[in-house]
Write a structure and sequence with these properties.
Protein name: Thioredoxin domain-containing protein
Helix content: 40-55%
Keywords: Membrane, Transmembrane, Transmembrane helix
Number of strands: 5
Number of helices: 9
Length: about 230
């Protein structure tokens, strides 16, 4: 009695193997795309920059005030005018560490030029070049803040502001290359939410880690809103 020979369908096996490889390849592409989308890219290397939160530290006081700002945001500018001098004094006298978080939520307001991202990127370029110039850069950017809905300042204008604030010529390529653009996107997602809102807003202020609600906690009086909370 002869044995029955079973034929192997190599074509089917080949197709199956190819399908497995294809799934692996597609899976790898999806994983790579997702990892690229969430990767912080180049991280600013500066003694003043927290690589996890994106905070640029001004001063070294034990207490902290964190400000999350978008350079296209007119309310951020108003906040700077009302509260900036007090925050600077508190940082200068050693009371606080002022943590400035440049973020980008208003790129849609700059006619496709991504001004918010480019401006925040420039702040990190300045911090890496010399963090001592960050405060002057921030003030100058608000002094020349473009209106929402305009194209905003171009890279050359931003670089000029940075250099006038004391930065070296090295910031020019950092700004035009968008060196920290992906980092800006990554840290923007880490902005804490204010009570009663469902999306990130600017400015967002936190005192010793407690996030304030702009509508109820910011009255325009820095003594009441900032100093008394620090002393309380």
């Amino acid at each position: 009695m002869s044995a029955v020979r079973k034929s192997t369908n190599w074509f089917a096996l080949g197709v199956t193997a190819a399908a497995v490889v294809l799934v692996l390849v597609i899976g790898g592409v999806v994983w790579f795309a997702n990892s690229q989308a969430t990767s912080p890219g180049t991280v600013p290397e500066s003694s003043a920059v927290d690589p996890d939160t994106g905070a640029i530290a001004v001063g070294s006081g034990e207490q902290t005030v964190d400000t999350y700002v978008d350079f296209m945001c007119p309310v951020c500018n108003s906040f700077e005018q009302a509260y900036g001098p007090t925050l600077q004094q508190l940082a200068d006298d050693g009371t606080i560490t002022l943590n400035i978080h440049p973020i980008a939520i208003l790129d849609r307001q700059s006619q496709g030029t991504a001004f918010s991202t480019r401006a925040a990127n420039a702040a990190y370029c300045v911090a890496v070049d010399d963090p001592a110039n960050v405060t002057a850069f921030v003030k100058a950017m608000y002094a020349q803040q473009p209106s929402e809905g305009t194209a905003g300042l171009d890279d050359a204008a931003i670089a000029t502001i940075a250099k006038n604030a004391g930065a070296s010529d090295a910031v020019t390529s950092c700004i035009s290359d968008g060196t920290y653009s992906r980092f800006v996107a990554a840290v923007t997602e880490k902005t804490p939410l204010q009570a009663g809102v469902s999306s990130i807003s600017t400015p967002t202020i936190a005192i010793n880690g407690t996030v304030l609600a702009n509508r109820t906690d910011l009255t325009g009086d820095p003594q009441k809103d900032i100093v008394e909370r620090l002393n309380g």
